[in-house]
Design brief:
By secondary structure, this protein is an alpha+beta fold. The protein has nine helices and seven strands.
Amino acid sequence: MTLYRDEGIVLRTQKLGEADRIVTVLTRRTGRIRAAAKGVRRTKSRFGARLEPFTHVDLQLYERRSLDLITQAETLRPYGGPLATDYPRYTAGTAMLETAEKLTEEREPALRQFLLLVGGLRTLVTREHDPRLVLDAFLLRSLSVSGWAPALDACARCGDRRPLRAFALAMGGGVCAACRPAGAATPAQPTFELMVALLRGDWEHADRSELRYRAECSGLVAAYLQWHLEHGVRSLRHVERDPVRAPEADRKVIMNEANQANEERV
């Protein structure tokens, strides 16, 4: 067995046997890994609390044929604590974790995706921007890193820089009036401008945007992401609910659903 060390963000956990867990981690150097953590579900576990989703950890592992084995875990930054008490930020963070897992391959280095995830979680915790804006910015940049950046500056079909009039998933983003296919969404111009701002990190523009354009932007980004993944992102259905209007009891149910989905998704 080869001993190695890496740092990463815990994406999710699964029960294994009576007291163990399988921990999925997006690491800085190795990429996405699945590793066994022995005895972490016992109350006297040495590092069980350090291997919860959202935690930025430094790990020592043994490389094995099937699951690697975690032998040490040190917390670098516990993002989960601050997020757990804030419903909008928690659900946005959960969607980030799921997206990062689905956009990476096991044991394939993904440094840029790792850095995006760390930066996104840090921004959620600092509360500098609206959590849905932070999530949409993360999704757009993650798609860009994966080679699926939507066309926002010129028509995805003809390349003309005339004003974009529609957003066509199958064509790769914004299209002009001449190239618009039947049934394509027709977002407002400020919505296109908001998407550009989020992709480029222009937070001054994004923070000034109106709620109606943010809602339109979120719908387009979610649809575009799931089009390229070819399946849904379960966590997004929780983000899209209105946490302000939901009764407190309903919010607790939704949080429990999100936690269960985090453990069960494959």
